[in-house]
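Worked example 3 (structure in, sequence out).
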């Protein structure tokens, strides 16, 4: 483990850019440090607000402990312009910077900025006019609503007048007309002032609506054009709509085939009011190979690998083969493999020209426990459709799993499910995902919500019957914009057995968990759920089962995570976290009083919620952050106390 920590430390130093060249350091040393910044003449906005707009900063240890602000005349000019722009955008359109002084004393730079604010101007009215139709009577026939066209304006009546928004709103209005087919619409803004009141006029010439003539995708080689045209929302003869063109552009990018997609209107025929539409694509490498190594605990190493094609045999169908193997280094040579998963899948978008995507798959899972081994073979077919947002989707799936058990007597005695050498589970799954995160790898605002329902047995057949429902809510709240984020996740799950109320050995059921296949139960613990605990350590057991513990699982699950993510410098950030979770083999074990942590382990019940806390580092990379976490267990009952109370986790990507 000591070697692992040394390797991680060396990697962090390299990735954080600690090995800068001597030339770069000398260049920085030639620039003096900024010692003080004084702003005079400001009344509407305090010094902190204005200095926050500047790149040059005064020294502040607690905010910027390892970073000095080096003076540069070019940067100062940019900062002065930023202050002017800020005033203009807040209605102070006559604000000026009268003077600025830069003095050097004892090798440090002192900056003084003198400004005159003037008085604020406010937007008194926004009026849309048309030289061809002053009363806008024809707009009703054209289904143009002036109030709706102004809905996304930056300028608002009664708010400060922002001259920059005038140009932005002209563009917004032009694009709103283009969304309604008016390709050649002309918009001219004009402002009249009455004291400090700004009267804004937009002169609009909509023109005529255009239709689409020809639609084409060019520069594609590996993916046939006929498949790509399914992603385009406009067809020949449709009304020209700019918003649908942008949606088509995003959908082409979402296919994963391309690095870039650009669109253009060509062949504008003013007499026929028609326009050709062309998408120019830049293809990615169609074949890919990937691999990775992760450390889930001191004695467990996870290996991942994959190979695939984004357009298998140039058909536009995605193909992927992925594997994941977990090794237990404490076991003897030849028996390192603890768990293994393999998956082969094909994905075809736009089935029969619809918005649905189809994905057949084959899976294999091997699970090795102290007194039983399990092989699971699966075949499934899922259908996915994106909702209103490009990252919101609904997924429907059907799956058949064949399970082979090789169990010892102790395993069968403990769990009747393991008495069966082979069985089948057939299930239907429905899942909806709503994703409003602003970034996939480093979100700092937004949320992720998911609800999944699985039904097995009954009319589907098979040897097992149950209903399984799981809900997840993740939220990201900016604490300090660009610097600190509060992130939290809550996940709850429940399984209800629907088959006979006797075990497969014919004995009465002691707990409902005995009616649910062991591979379908909930398990928690590890780098991605409750840190500080080993992978799947929280499995519903209420007593210790010896040195080698067997995973059992539960039918009720509760998981909560709370993180504070703080950017330090370069690509390095610090995370503090609190995790909580447990699974229960019977819903009667879950009690409200068991959710509160106890200070004394003797007061903790085995069915209470388990907690852990710790801190970690994140290093940003193009494929997501590399994370190193140290976590310590908390709220563990005496019955399950172990010598090991803390754990290191090394992995790729955030925990959630």
């Amino acid at each position: 483990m000591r070697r692992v920590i040394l390797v991680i430390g060396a990697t962090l130093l390299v990735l954080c850019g600690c090995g800068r060249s001597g030339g770069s350091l000398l260049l920085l040393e030639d620039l003096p440090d900024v010692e003080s910044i004084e702003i005079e003449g400001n009344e509407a906005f305090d010094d902190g607000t204005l200095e926050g707009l500047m790149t040059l900063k005064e020294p502040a240890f607690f905010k910027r402990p390892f970073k000095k602000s080096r003076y540069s005349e070019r940067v100062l000019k940019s900062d002065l312009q930023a202050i002017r722009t800020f005033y203009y955008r807040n209605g102070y359109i006559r604000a000026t910077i009268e003077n600025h002084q830069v003095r050097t004393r004892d090798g440090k730079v002192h900056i003084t900025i003198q400004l005159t604010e003037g008085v604020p101007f406010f937007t008194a009215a926004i009026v849309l006019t048309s030289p061809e139709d002053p009363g806008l009577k024809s707009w009703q026939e054209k289904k143009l609503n002036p109030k709706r066209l102004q809905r996304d304006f930056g300028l608002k009546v009664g708010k400060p007048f922002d001259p920059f928004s005038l140009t932005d709103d002209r563009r917004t209005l032009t694009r709103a007309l283009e969304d309604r087919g008016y390709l050649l619409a002309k918009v001219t803004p004009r402002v009249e002032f009455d004291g400090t009141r700004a009267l804004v006029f937009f002169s609009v010439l909509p023109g005529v609506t255009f239709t689409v003539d020809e639609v084409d995708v060019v520069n594609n080689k590996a993916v046939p054009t006929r498949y790509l045209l399914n992603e385009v929302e406009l067809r020949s003869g449709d009304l020209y709509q700019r918003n649908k063109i942008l949606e088509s552009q995003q959908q082409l990018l979402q296919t994963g085939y391309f690095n870039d997609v650009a669109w253009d209107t060509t062949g504008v025929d003013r007499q026929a009011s028609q326009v050709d539409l062309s998408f120019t694509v830049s293809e990615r490498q169609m074949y890919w190979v990937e691999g990775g190594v992760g450390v889930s605990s001191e004695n467990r190493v996870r290996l991942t690998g994959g190979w695939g094609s984004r357009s298998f045999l140039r058909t536009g169908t995605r193909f992927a083969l992925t594997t994941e193997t977990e090794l237990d280094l404490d076991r003897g040579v030849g028996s390192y493999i603890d768990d293994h998963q393999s998956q082969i899948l094909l994905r075809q978008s736009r089935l029969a020209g619809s918005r649905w995507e189809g994905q057949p798959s084959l899976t294999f899972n091997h699970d090795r426990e102290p007194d039983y081994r399990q092989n699971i073979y699966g075949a499934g077919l899922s259908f996915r459709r994106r909702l209103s947002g490009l990252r919101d989707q609904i997924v429907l799936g059907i799956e058949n799993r064949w399970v082979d058990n090789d169990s010892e007597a102790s395993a069968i005695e403990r769990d009747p499910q393991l008495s069966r050498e082979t069985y089948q589970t057939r299930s239907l799954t429905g899942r909806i995902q709503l994703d409003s995160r602003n970034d996939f790898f480093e979100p700092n605002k937004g949320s992720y919500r998911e609800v999944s329902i699985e039904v097995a047995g009954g009319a589907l057949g098979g040897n097992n019957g149950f209903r399984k429902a799981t809900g997840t809510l993740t939220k990201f709240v900016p604490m300090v914009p660009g610097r600190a984020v509060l992130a939290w996740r809550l996940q709850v799950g429940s399984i209800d057995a629907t088959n006979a109320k006797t075990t497969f050995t014919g004995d009465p059921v002691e707990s409902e968990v005995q009616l649910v296949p062991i591979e379908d139960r909930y398990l928690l613990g590890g780098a991605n759920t409750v840190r500080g605990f080993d992978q799947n350590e929280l499995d519903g057991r209420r007593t210790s089962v010896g040195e080698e513990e067997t995973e059992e699982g539960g039918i009720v699950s509760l998981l909560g995570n709370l993180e504070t993510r703080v950017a330090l410098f370069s690509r390095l950030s610090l995370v503090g976290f609190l995790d909580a979770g447990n699974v229960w083999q019977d819903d009667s074990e879950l009690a409200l009083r068991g959710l509160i942590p106890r200070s004394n382990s003797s007061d903790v019940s085995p069915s209470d919620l388990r907690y852990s806390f710790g801190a970690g580092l994140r290093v940003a990379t193009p494929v997501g952050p590399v994370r190193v976490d140290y976590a310590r267990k908390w709220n563990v009952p005496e019955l399950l106390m172990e010598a090991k109370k803390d754990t290191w986790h090394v992995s790729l990507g955030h925990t959630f």
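Notes: DSSP finds ten helices and 25 strands in the chain. Residues 1-8, 10-28 have pLDDT under 50 and may be disordered.
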